[in-house]
Amino acid sequence: MRVGIIGYGTIGTDVAGFIQRGEAGEASLAAVLVRKGLTCESGPAGKSGKPLFTASFNEFMEQAPDLVVECAGHSAVAAYGERVLRTADFMVVSAGALADEDLHGRLMKTARENGHRLVVPSAAIAGLDRIAAASVGYMEEVSLITRKPPKAWIGTFVEDKLNLEGLTEPVCVFEGPARESAKLFPESVNVSAALSLAGIGFDRTTVKVFVDPGITSNRHQVVARGKFGELQLEVGNTPSAANPKTGYIVAMSVIHNLRKLSGPFMIGL
Ligand SMILES: NC(=O)C1=CN([C@@H]2O[C@H](COP(=O)(O)OP(=O)(O)OC[C@H]3O[C@@H](n4cnc5c(N)ncnc54)[C@H](OP(=O)(O)O)[C@@H]3O)[C@@H](O)[C@H]2O)C=CC1
Ligand SMILES: O=C([O-])CC(=O)C(=O)O
C-alpha cells in the first residue's frame, strides 16, 4: 500500500519515520505534501525511489498513493479531501473538520461515488470500537471531559482569556455539544469529533474542556451508557516534545491503522 502524508509537523514526521523504518506493515511511503518547498534533506525523488517531498498537490497525487493520511489541520481536510477521495482512501487525523456537516457530506459522497474510504483513526482517544458497537443499539449518553496542562493551550484562543502561567486551579473553558468543541479547538479537541462520529453524533455528544495546572499529561475521560451497558475510561497521553497539544499516541494510532489496512490481520476495530 502506497501512502501519502499531508503535513510534515509533529504527527506527519513521526508517521513518516515509522513507515520508513518498516514499522507500518505492508505500507510504504510514496510522497509527503508540505506547505513551502522541501523540508526534507533527502530531497525529491520519484515513484520507485525515496518518497517525494513536494509543495505541489498535483505532483503529490502523481505518486499514486493508495491512501493519504492528513496530518495538517482542519483547513487541509477541506482543501484536499474531495480531490484525494477521487483516487485514494483518505485518513483524517484532524477529525474535527468533519463537524462541518456540508464538508462531511461532500467527502462521504465523493468516497462513495469513487469506491474509496474516509477513515478516522482513534488517535488520541480510546474505546471507539466499543462506542461504535454500542451505537448499534440505543444510547442514552456519550460524554467527554478533556483536560490538558496550561502549556498545551499556548497558541489557542484560551491564551487570550486566561493567564496560563498564573493558574493554580483547573478552569473549565468550554461546556457544550461536541459540534461546538470540535470547531472551537481545531488544534486540540479533535477527540470530541472522533467520539461523536463513532457514537451518537456531534449534537448529542457532550463535552467539557479544562485547562488543568495539576497534570502533566493530556487526559480524556469518556462516559457512555445505553442498551449495551456502560463504559467509563480515561486516557493520559504523553505530550510530544515538538507540540504539547498532541500526544505521541496519535502517530502510533495512525501506524496501527496502516498495519490493519495494508495487511492480512485486523484487530482493535
Ligand atoms: N484526532 C486526534 O486525536 C488529534 C488530531 N490532531 C490534529 O492533527 C493536526 C496536526 O497536528 P500536529 O502534527 O501536532 O501539528 P503541527 O503544527 O506540529 O504540524 C502541522 C503541519 O502541517 C503543515 N500544514 C498545515 N497546512 C498544510 C497544508 N495545507 N499543506 C501541507 N502542510 C500543511 C504545517 O506546516 P506549517 O509549519 O507551514 O504551518 C505543519 O508542518 C492538528 O492541527 C489537529 O487538528 C492533533 C492531535 C490529536
Ligand atoms: O493529543 C491529544 O491528546 C488530543 C488532541 O490534541 C486533539 O484531540 O486534537
From TrEMBL:
Residues 7-121 form the Aspartate/homoserine dehydrogenase NAD-binding domain. Pathway: Cofactor biosynthesis; NAD(+) biosynthesis; iminoaspartate from L-aspartate (dehydrogenase route): step 1/1. It catalyses: L-aspartate + NAD(+) + H2O = oxaloacetate + NH4(+) + NADH + H(+); L-aspartate + NADP(+) + H2O = oxaloacetate + NH4(+) + NADPH + H(+). The keyword NAD applies. Belongs to the L-aspartate dehydrogenase family. Keywords: NAD, NADP, Oxidoreductase, Pyridine nucleotide biosynthesis. One of its GO terms (molecular function) is aspartate dehydrogenase [NAD(P)+] activity. InterPro entries: Asp/hSer_DH_NAD-bd (IPR005106), Asp_DH (IPR002811), Asp_DH_prok (IPR020626), L-Asp_DH (IPR011182), NAD(P)-bd_dom_sf (IPR036291). Specifically catalyzes the NAD or NADP-dependent dehydrogenation of L-aspartate to iminoaspartate. NAD(+) binds at residues 124, 190. The active site is at residue 220. This is L-aspartate dehydrogenase. The iminoaspartate product is unstable in aqueous solution and can decompose to oxaloacetate and ammonia. Residues 167-255 form the Aspartate dehydrogenase domain. Transmembrane segments: none annotated. One of its GO terms (biological process) is NAD+ biosynthetic process. Its EC number is 1.4.1.21. It comes from the Bacteria. HAMAP family: NadX. The keyword Transferase does not apply.
